[in-house]
Design brief:
This protein has 362 residues and is α/β, with parallel strands linked by helices. It has two domains: 1-118 and 306-362, Rossmann fold; 129-305, Up-down Bundle (Glutathione S-transferase Yfyf (Class Pi), Chain A, domain 2). 38% of the residues lie in helices and 22% in strands. It has nine helices and 13 strands. The longest helix has 35 residues, at 177-211.
């Protein structure tokens, strides 16, 4: 995998025109709140499909009183320079994001970009993942799955679309039985695939958390499992479809579907049976960083991928253990890293060859 050489922002968020050069190793973007540090990470994250680290509306990317934005990044992979241009475009009175690679736009171009860039994104709310909602934990896990399976988000969206369509059909007086059965078949097939991907991710975390113990010794051992009374590894299409059929009347009344991967949760334990949600704030951050370390280890050493790490406001609750763990993640793998924080001094644990950039002065 490659790295970003630079990026130029035009009418993006708080920036009129802004250009910055990057190191292919570690980059620290620091400055006062509101200067645009997170906006820079967001601009990078928009270089692949999706709505960026904030999952925001395209209209919010455009600087106030402007009509459009355009960001141009230079990306290097295997000594080949690529220009990635991300723009907003008005089509049928609707704003859309468009990505061009060397001024070309097509489905094949999008596939090429997806093959070039893999992100792992850390947001401040990740620190509270063990006390957050099940939806937040599912999204957190799904991000890790997507880092090695860029078709996974399409699978999840297909599943959600069919769950919604089933609910519409159930509330239609003249519902089509054949069509409803087909929708439930789609839900069953995609639901089982989602379950398989999530179970695989759980197993990968367990294995790689064990592997990285030789790099970094922590004070606890981690265990995790999927919490879902409907899911078993023996779940098949027939059982899934029968369950959906039996719940039609209930689902018609309450709306949605009362079981499936959209209802799953993950439970984390340390030292076999102690809930991760009961750890101190600093210990919870240690566990989160271990999950990122684990995924990096898997992507680099098993998948031959070098993800680009986008770590936003990473320095809160960064005690000595967490600082050393973060330093180990940066140094262990040959990959590009971006971090943001309010003060350069917060990153004193990093090596002297880190690229520091004061965004407040730009």
């Amino acid at each position: 995998m490659g790295y970003f050489k630079n990026i130029q922002l035009n009418n993006f968020r708080n920036f009129n025109e802004f250009q910055i050069e990057f190191s292919d190793k570690c980059n620290v973007l620091f400055g006062k709140n509101g200067c645009g540090k997170t906006n820079l990470l967001e601009a990078l994250s928009l270089c692949i499909k999706g709505r960026g680290i904030r999952n925001d509306k395209i209209t919010n990317f455009i600087k106030k009183d402007e009509n459009s934005f355009s960001n141009i990044a230079n990306f290097v992979n295997e000594n080949i320079d690529y220009e990635i241009k991300v723009i907003s475009e008005l089509s049928n009175n609707k704003l859309q994001k468009k990505i061009l690679l060397n001024n070309e736009f097509s489905s094949e171009v999008n596939k090429k970009i997806q093959s070039l860039i893999t992100y792992l994104i850390y947001l401040p709310e990740n620190e509270r993942i063990f006390i957050a909602s099940p939806t937040t934990r599912r999204n957190f896990f799904d991000h890790f799955i997507f880092s090695n399976n860029n078709k996974y988000s399409t699978l999840v969206n297909f599943y959600k679309k069919n769950v919604y369509e089933r609910n519409v059909i159930l509330n239609n007086i003249n519902s089509d039985e054949n069509w409803l059965t087909k929708i439930e078949e789609n839900i069953s097939n995609s639901g089982i695939e989602i379950y398989k991907n999530r179970k695989m991710q759980v197993d990968l975390f367990v294995k790689n958390l064990g592997d990285i113990s030789k790099y970094f010794n922590t004070e606890f051992k981690v265990a995790l499992e999927i919490n879902d009374p409907f899911y078993t590894e023996k779940l098949n299409i027939d059982k899934y479809m029968i369950s959906l059929r039996q719940c039609r009347e209930i689902d018609k009344i309450v709306g949605g579907t009362k079981f499936g991967p959209h209802k799953s949760d993950y439970i984390f334990f340390v030292d076999k049976n102690y809930p991760a949600s009961q750890l101190s704030t600093g210990q919870q951050k240690t566990l989160v960083l271990l999950l990122y370390f684990s995924q990096c280890n898997y992507l680099v050493n098993t998948c031959n991928k070098k993800p680009i790490l986008l770590l936003d406001e990473i320095c809160s609750h960064l005690d000595e253990t967490n600082a050393q763990l973060l330093l180990k993640i940066v140094n262990q793998f040959d990959m590009q890293v971006f971090m943001t924080g309010t003060n350069k001094d917060l990153f004193s644990f990093l090596s002297t060859n880190t690229n520091f950039c004061n965004i407040s002065n730009k």
